[in-house]
Each structure stands twice: as structure tokens, then as C-alpha cells.
Amino acid sequence: MVRTNAWMRAAACALGITMGLVLATTEGRADTIELENGDKIEATVVEETDDALVIDHPVFGRTTIPKDSLKKEEPVNPGLFGTGFLRGWERSIAFGFNGSSGNSDSIGINAAMRLFGEGDAYRARFRAAYFYAKQRAQDEVDKKKTTNNAFTDYRHDFLIFGEAPFFLWGNARYDYDEFQDFEHRIAGQGGAGWEIYNNDTILWLWTAGAGFNHQAGRVDDTIGEFVSGMDFRWNIMDGQSVKADTYYYADFQRWSDFRLISSLLYEISLGWVDGLALNAGLKNEYRNEVLPPEPPNVRNENNNLQYFGGLTYNF
User: Fold this and answer.
1) Could you say which DSSP state residue 177 is in?
2) How many domains does the structure of the chain reveal?
3) Given this model, what pLDDT does residue 193 score?
4) Disulfide: which of 34, 106, 164, 228 matches 133 by Cβ 3.0-4.6 Å?
5) What pLDDT score does 265 carry?
6) pLDDT computed for residue 7 by the predictor
7) Structure confidence at residue 188 (pLDDT)
8) What is the domain-level CATH number for residue 65?
9) In what order do the strands lie in the sheet with 31-34?
10) Is 17 helix (H, G, I), strand (E, B) or coil?
11) Could you give phi then psi for residue 126, rounded to 5 degrees?
């Protein structure tokens, strides 16, 4: 009987200690509450209403904090025109000036649209731009159109391997250029890719694959091609970003026949207008083999470099 009572006392004591530890742990657990000014408070949330939080602070006791004074969560971009279309995507339109150093000394205008979206199973990018310029001359009669080109490009990454850095991708692109031998070019490629680096600040991708391009103009041809390239996005700080990419395309039948398409874009936000930013960038296409020039329009430089800058509106 004595042994039984001793065991019962020991069990009761152990149960009491365990319950005490549980209660102490529960009572000591605190929530981190961040205020609009950046201050953080460690306290237990006792009650939450539509307008306020009631907290229990170890020093100040029970206190009510208006929700207006709490740090606001970063809003997700709403969809276009009140719909769910492109909700959460980065969206921008741009307008500005552009120039050309390859064919002649010219200056003109450019317009562009860029979209970028990302989810658990995909990553997508759409770009479209138009460039127009005339040769600079003192005499109005001598002013000639020197640039008239446009492109649209859509890239889709299939993130089907979970947390692994591998992904599959597909890309479709259309190019128009009044002063190149192809004039119209349609291309499509696909393959596999690798995330070299991916966090909240930097996205660095490498891709490789195969596809085709069809040209219509002075050249009317369809070829298969190997493609490999890199994409780079860097959010330097709030309101400043750099985007760059470069892609190498080689003809399957003649590996010496290749082209290299590269672009670079820098944006810096104008704090006094929400969504407005300045941009500056370069776009270049190098082709190692081109047809001889044919007057009056086709020049066919191996290197077609364009620079541009202007205003971007993010919406």
C-alpha cells in the first residue's frame, strides 16, 4: 500500500510538472507584430476585430492596437479591368526615343509592352516592341526612313520538377524588319533549362534546346536550329532593376551559320509618380552571314545595334 501511494504521488508530481511546462510554454509564446514605422512588438494576440488587435504585452499589459498602424502587406497586382486576367503579373508599357549606330546616324521613337508572371507550376514572359527612325539631316528632303522594325516574343517555363532547379521551356517569336533580307521571321523553340540562381533578388537561367525559324522576304526559307541562352533579372533595390538576355542560334545543316540576339534593360522608379519609371537599354542582333545589300531599302549589316530610352509605366 505504501509503494502504491508512492507511485501515485510520483505520477501526480510528474503530471503536474508536465502541465506546468506546457502552460509556461503556451503562455510564453508571443506573436511578432510589425508596425507601419518598422517597429516590432513581441506580444500575444488575445483578440482581433475588424479595426484593431487586442494584445497582452509582458510590460504594458493588455493593449489595443489600431490596424491602421500595422504594416501593410505588399498588395498583389490586381487583374486587368477588374478581372482576374494577369492577376499578380508584372505589367508595363513604355514609350521613348531610340537610335541606330549600325546603318546610319538616326533618331526616332519606340514603344514596348512587357509582362512577367510566375506561379508554382509556371513562369511566363511576354515582350513586344516597335522601333521607327529617320535619318537626321538639315534638308527635309534628305531625311530618309532608316528604322522600321518590330518583334513579339513569348516564353513559357514549365516548373514541373518541384523544388528541383530543372525546368522545361518553350518560346515563340515573330520579327519584322523592313531593312533586312528576311523582312518577316517566325521562330519557335523548346528544350530544358536550369536555374543557376533564383531568390527574391536575382533570377538567372540557362536554357538549351532546338527549334526552327521561317524567313519570308528576299530570303524564303525554313531551317532547323540549335539554341542556347541565358536570362538574367536583378532587382537591385526597391525601384531599380536590370533585365538582360542573350541567345545563340545555329543552323543544324551549317553550324558556321549562326545569329546572336541580345538585349539589356535598366529601369529606375520615379518616386513622385506611382508606377512611373525611367528606362534605358540596348537591343542587338548579330548574323555572321547576310545577303549583299540591295538598294534602295535593304542594307543587311551583320550587326544591327539599337539603343533606346524613355518612360515606363508599371500597372
Assistant:
1) E
2) 2
3) 98
4) 106
5) 96
6) 47
7) 97
8) 2.30.30
9) 31-34, 40-48, 52-57, 61-66
10) helix
11) -125, 135
Same domain, 164 and 61: no
Give the contacts of 155 (CB within 8 A, at least 6 positions apart): 124, 125, 126, 169, 170, 171
- Cell numbers at residue 207, please? 536554357
**Which 8-state DSSP code applies to residue 142?**
G
d(Cα 5, Cα 8) in Å, to the nearest integer?
5
pTM for the structure as a whole: 0.70
pLDDT mean for each 10 residues of the chain (315 residues)? 49 50 45 79 82 82 82 68 81 83 68 94 96 71 77 97 94 93 93 95 97 89 95 94 97 90 95 89 87 60 85 93
What span, in angstroms and rounded, lies between the C-alpha atoms of 202 and 146? 37
Cell numbers for 220, please give them: 524564303
The residues that bridge with 253 in the sheet, in sequence order, are none
For cell 546616324, what's the residue?
Answer: 105
Range of the domain at 206: 80-314
The neighbour count for residue 80, using CB atoms within 10 Å, is 13
User: In Å, what is the CA distance from 242 to each residue of 237, 238, 267?
Assistant: 10, 12, 7
* Interatomic CA distance for residues 151 and 185, integer angstroms: 9
